[in-house]
């Protein structure tokens, strides 16, 4: 390493890393940063803080008792806070929500067009600076900037979650299949004979006999889906473990005790070949049709499950190199179990080249997600994303802002991920 | 290779069979007729006519084998409607009595049919709100056939019972419903839910949907091995014909786009590696790198906004491939092509820029890597001219990744780009795939799955051939002398 080189994580990530962190912050706090609810209100000597808590309790109402006359009832989600004659009010930085249209500025009002504002009942004035739609509005009058802020969360969530899923799958399969190869793992003949029927029975009990439990869980929600799928997977693995255990019983027959290698490497290779030969877009829509309702989780699962082969290949190539190194041999001579050598000693050394690919993959996943929402498939209709904003700009070419700003958001995010990948690669080369 | 391809076709086939969409859900009105024996029951989806059930082989078993539980009805494939299928399967699994479940289902269907066909006398109809009650009864009995969820079933049965208690008359219908209720009671009394956990494999023989699809039958279908992909659900046309008529635009677009990309990017990559650090390299490398981060739909829409917009620059038409008013199909090919040319400029640019960025980066990095090697110094020391060193040595040795890229793009050349054809409304194969996917046209989707998979695997094969052409050291057979 060259002297004086700063190699802290921030220095490696640089400006793109900081930008991405900022974007992540914006995405996580989107519903507080861009909302038509105020942060702080003082109205007729009553103070509400934080007033945006109405995001979580949408029907929050407050009643103001006047000394003489009828009480005034404020329902937080429908009242027009901007024209309320409050003593003091602090609005969110972007005082608009992506799904609360501004009827006075509908039909594609541009950022430089004249915008109208409802000052008080029936008194329409020109828009004050504080409440301007800085990036314009769409056909319904939804604020574009608010949409972009809310879309950032969705894009980053899908990009990062799909990256993690593909990363875990690819690294695990690549490391295990390269470390053991076609010869490294072996089961006795009786175990192998029992393995096939056990796998069949496991799959049957896990997914065929429980198919209605699973479909009920899908309909209930995320948590029950995860729980139910995990239960199924456990059932399957229990069956397989039982087969391996029961196979030992037959070891008193010499022919059954003979160890036979499992061609793990070839099997995983065929699997990755198959995954690469499936057209992703067609698969996504077919699956969306099977599961009936569109959901973010499904898009993440599909993009993640379809993009592990490149990670797998990088990890496999690296593991093929690492497993021949002498410290692995030393660990083996020391008598450590194979799985411990694989995960504690060999695997950490293969991760470095994979991080570069993971950063590229996050960018590619964001492009895949926004393409899908541009075509209007995959994600639920009420979720605002950069791709869906851009597709509404396609209806009206005059509204250039509906095309340029969401496109720029995607472009900058993906570019940041790509530069990050290049920086990690360069850092590895020179360190 | 053949094994992988078979697996891919089976995956596609499994999707089409398990999809909850009815076969004719997205089909236009004339393709599906209401199921003839159940008029006016709200069954949610449009059912295929009996003639179409035969034409598409929907009444056959799906595969050679089926794996199901001992509780399942083993002739379930004869039920066409997806909702009915689920209702029967779920009831059978919970009761463990397949034969009794079928009896109960038929009786429920008969009750619903009786309710729909019931012609009450006019005196009865005028009493109180009998007419409304009868309609509600019809609706509830139809809805009992629709949803298999036990909770909904119980709720609806209760409401039917209450309705029967509140009206007089309706003797036939009442009898039919009592029969249904009796059979349901029998089901719960004789329940053997343990049978759900016992697997059964049933052999259906060669007369199944998958076999017909792959190998054809003796009569109308010739099977995909003879180029017959079956018929589309959407319009009943042969899929092979549909693909044939749409593919020319996709091919024109993708081949021209790729050619353009290679013609520009190869010299660019070589030049910027050759004069590394010159002004051209310093500008083009970051530019291409950032170009790579622009998604195709953004680039396409941006081009439309800039160059096909009367307010900015109205240079190119914004969608389609020809002007319907002035186009004459009798024109010679060249005239037709030149007529369509302005329509294709923007799509081809959109198509080319993505691979342009990728290929030129690939070549630049590869050549820079080669240039540091010893044989380049030897070639220069030999006195070879610089262009020869560059093109015949460095570039030649950098062909392998290029071959990989070309062969990997083979399936994409076939399927066209769904996004680009969608943005520019080009009636190519990509747009056709998109539309058939939106309208649940499963025969088309499986055809695309299998052709795509076939071309990917062919691409691997071509890549292997190309490697040995580009690098004579790579051979397929093992050299016995070594």
Q: What is the number of helical segments of chain A per DSSP (H or I, 4+ residues)?
A: 15
Helix content of chain B: 55-70%
Measure the end-to-end span of chain B.
28 Å
Give the radius of gyration of chain B. 32 Å
Please trace the helix and strand order of chain B, writing H or E for each element.
HHEHHHHHHEHHHHHHHHHHHH
What is the 3D shape of chain B? elongated
Order of helices and strands of chain A: HHEEEEEEEHEHHHHEHHHHHHHH
Helices and strands of chain A: which structural class?
mainly alpha
Largest beta-sheet characterization of chain A: 3 strands, antiparallel
How much beta of chain A, percentage-wise?
5-15%
Spans of chain B of at least 5 consecutive residues whose pLDDT stays below 50 are: 28-45
Widest sheet: strand ordering of chain B: 1-2
**Which strand order does the major sheet of chain A show?**
2-1-5
Question: What does the main sheet of chain B amount to?
Answer: 2 strands, antiparallel
Walk me through the structure.
The complex is a heterodimer of chains A (431) and B (482). By secondary structure, chain A is mainly alpha-helical. Chain A is built from 15 helices and nine strands. Chain A has helices spanning 9-28, 30-33, 144-180, 189-208, 211-220, 222-247, 254-257, 264-276, 280-290, 296-306, 308-322, 326-334, 338-375, 386-393, 400-430, and strands spanning 38-43, 46-48, 61-64, 72-75, 88-91, 116-120, 123-126, 186-188, 259-261. The mean pLDDT of chain A is 85. Chain B is built from 20 helices and two strands. Chain B has helices at residues 2-18, 50-55, 82-95, 98-117, 122-126, 130-144, 150-166, 171-189, 209-215, 239-274, 279-291, 296-307, 333-371, 374-382, 386-397, 399-408, 410-415, 418-423, 429-438, 442-470, and strands at residues 65-69, 199-203. Classes of the chains: A mainly alpha (431), B mainly alpha (482). Chains A and B meet through helix 4, helix 8, helix 9, helix 13 and helix 14 of A and helix 1, strand 1, helix 12, helix 18 and helix 19 of B.
């Amino acid at each position: 390493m060259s002297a004086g080189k700063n190699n802290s994580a921030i220095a490696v990530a640089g400006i793109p890393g900081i930008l991405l962190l900022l974007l992540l912050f914006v995405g996580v706090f989107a519903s507080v940063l861009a909302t038509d609810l105020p942060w702080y209100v003082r109205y007729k000597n009553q103070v509400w803080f934080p007033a945006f808590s109405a995001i979580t309790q949408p029907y929050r109402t407050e009643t103001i008792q006047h000394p003489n006359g009828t009480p005034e009832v404020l329902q937080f989600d429908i009242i027009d806070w901007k024209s309320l004659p409050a003593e003091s009010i602090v609005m969110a930085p972007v005082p608009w929500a992506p799904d609360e249209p501004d009827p006075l500025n509908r039909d594609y009002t541009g950022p430089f067009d004249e915008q109208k504002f409802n000052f008080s009942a029936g008194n329409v004035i020109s828009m004050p600076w504080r409440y301007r739609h800085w990036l314009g509005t769409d056909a319904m009058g939804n604020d574009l900037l608010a949409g972009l802020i809310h879309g950032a969360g969705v894009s980053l969530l899908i990009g990062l979650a799909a990256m993690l899923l593909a990363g875990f799958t690819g690294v695990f399969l690549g490391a295990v299949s390269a470390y053991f190869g076609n010869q490294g793992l072996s089961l006795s003949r009786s175990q192998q004979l029992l393995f096939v029927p056990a796998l069949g029975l496991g799959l049957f009990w896990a997914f065929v006999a429980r198919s209605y439990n699973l479909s009920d869980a899908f309909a209930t929600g995320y948590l029950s889906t995860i729980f139910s799928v995990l239960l199924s997977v456990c059932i399957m693995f229990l069956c397989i473990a039982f087969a391996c255990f029961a196979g030992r019983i037959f070891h008193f027959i010499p022919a059954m005790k003979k160890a036979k290698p499992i061609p793990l490497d070839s099997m995983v290779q065929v699997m990755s070949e198959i995954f690469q030969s499936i057209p992703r877009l067609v698969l996504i829509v077919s699956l969306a049709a099977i599961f009936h309702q569109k959901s973010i989780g499904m898009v993440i699962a599909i993009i993640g499950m379809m993009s592990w082969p490149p990670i797998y290949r990088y990890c496999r190539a690296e593991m093929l190199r690492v497993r021949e190194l002498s410290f692995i041999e030393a660990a083996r001579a020391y008598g450590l179990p194979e799985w411990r050598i694989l995960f504690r000693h060999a695997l950490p050394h293969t991760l470095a080249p994979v991080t570069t690919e993971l950063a590229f993959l996050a960018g590619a996943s964001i492009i895949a997600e926004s393409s899908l929402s541009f075509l209007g498939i995959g994600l639920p209709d009420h979720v605002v994303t950069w791709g869906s904003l851009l597709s509404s700009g396609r209806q009206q070419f005059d509204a250039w802002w509906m095309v340029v700003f969401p496109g720029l958001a995607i472009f900058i995010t993906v570019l940041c991920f790509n530069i990050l990948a290049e920086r990690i690669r360069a850092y590895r080369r020179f360190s | 290779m053949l094994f992988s391809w078979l697996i891919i076709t089976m995956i596609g086939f499994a999707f089409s069979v398990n999809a909850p969409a009815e076969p004719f859900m997205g089909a236009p009105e004339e393709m599906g007729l209401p199921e003839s024996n159940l008029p006016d029951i709200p069954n949610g989806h449009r059912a295929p006519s009996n003639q179409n059930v035969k034409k598409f082989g929907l009444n056959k078993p799906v595969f050679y084998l089926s794996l199901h539980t001992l509780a399942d009805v083993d002739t379930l494939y004869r039920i066409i409607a997806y909702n009915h299928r689920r209702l029967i399967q779920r009831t059978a699994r919970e009761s463990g009595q397949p034969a009794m479940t079928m009896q109960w289902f038929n009786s429920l269907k008969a009750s619903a049919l009786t309710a729909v066909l019931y012609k009450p006398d006019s005196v009865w109809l005028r009493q109180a709100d009998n007419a409304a009650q009868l309609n509600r009864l019809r609706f509830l009995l139809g809805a009992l056939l629709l949803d298999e969820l036990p909770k909904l079933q119980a709720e609806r049965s209760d409401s039917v019972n209450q309705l029967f208690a509140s009206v007089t008359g309706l003797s036939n219908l009442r009898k039919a419903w009592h029969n249904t209720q009796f059979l349901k009671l029998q089901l719960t009394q004789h329940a053997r839910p343990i049978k759900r956990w016992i697997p059964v494999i049933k052999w259906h023989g060669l007369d199944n949907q998958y076999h017909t699809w792959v190998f054809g039958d003796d009569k109308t279908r010739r099977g995909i091995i003879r180029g017959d992909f079956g018929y589309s659900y959407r319009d009943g046309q042969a899929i092979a014909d549909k693909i044939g008529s749409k593919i020319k635009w996709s091919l024109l677009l993708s081949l021209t786009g790729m050619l353009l990309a290679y013609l520009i990017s190869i010299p660019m990559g070589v030049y910027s590696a050759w004069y590394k650090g010159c002004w051209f390299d310093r500008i083009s490398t970051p530019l291409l790198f950032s170009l790579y981060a622009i998604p195709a739909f953004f680039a396409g829409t941006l081009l439309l906004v800039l160059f096909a917009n009367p307010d900015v620059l109205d240079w190119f038409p914004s969608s389609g491939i020809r002007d319907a008013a002035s186009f004459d199909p009798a024109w010679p090919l060249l005239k037709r092509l030149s007529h369509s040319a302005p329509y294709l400029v923007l799509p081809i640019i959109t198509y080319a820029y993505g691979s342009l960025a990728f290929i030129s980066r690939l070549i630049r990095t590869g050549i820079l890597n080669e240039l540091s090697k010893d044989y380049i110094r030897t070639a220069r020391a030999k006195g070879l001219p610089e262009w020869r060193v560059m093109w015949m040595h460095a570039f030649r040795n950098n062909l392998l990744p290029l071959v990989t890229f070309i062969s990997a793009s083979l399936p994409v050349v076939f399927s066209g780009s769904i996004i680009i054809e969608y943005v520019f409304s080009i009636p190519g194969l990509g747009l056709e795939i998109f539309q058939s996917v939106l309208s649940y046209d499963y025969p088309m989707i499986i055809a695309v799955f299998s052709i795509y998979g076939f071309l990917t695997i062919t691409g691997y094969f071509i890549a292997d051939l190309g490697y040995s052409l580009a690098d004579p050291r790579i051979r397929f057979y093992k050299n016995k002398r070594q």
